[in-house]
Amino acid sequence: MSELFDAVDALIASRSPLPSPAERKRLRQAHGLTLDEVAAALQVRRATVSGWEAGKTEPRPPERDAYARMLKQLAQLYPADPKAAAPATGTAVPETLAAPATPAPTGAEPARARTEPTGSIPEPASEDTAPRPAPVSQPAATAKPMSRRPPARKAAPPGAPVGGVDARFVNGPLAVVDVTDEGQVVAYCPGGLVLEVPAKSLPSLVDWTLAEGKLGQPKLSGPAKDADPLLVLTEAALERYGLPTALTAEERTAGRIPEGHKIVKQLTRAQWQLTKRGFGPWARIYRPAQGSERACVQLCIPSWDALDSRHWGDAASLPPAELARVLGVFAARVMTPRGSTAVTGLELMTALHPPTRASEPDADGKRHSEHNPGSLGKEPVDCAPCEAPDGHPLLKDLPRFHIRGPEEKLFEEAYDWARPMTDGECTRRFLVGLDVNMAFAAGANGLTVGLGEPTHVKAPAFDPKLPGSWLVDLSHVDLSRVKVAKDKWVELDADLLPSPFTPKGERPQGPAWYSTPAVAYATELGYEVRALEAYVRYDNGRYLDGWYNRLRDAYLATMADLGVDADLSPEDFLAAMDGYKSRDPELAIVVSVVKATVKGGLGKLRERPRGEGWRPGEPWRALSRPTWRPDIRAAVISRTRINLHRKMVKHAAFTGQYPVAILSDCVVYAADGESPLDFLPYREGKPLPGGFKLGVNPGLVKWEGTQTVLWGEGVREQFSAPELNLARYIKDGTVTDQDNGE
Question: Is-above-0.90 flag for pTM?
Answer without folding.
Answer: no
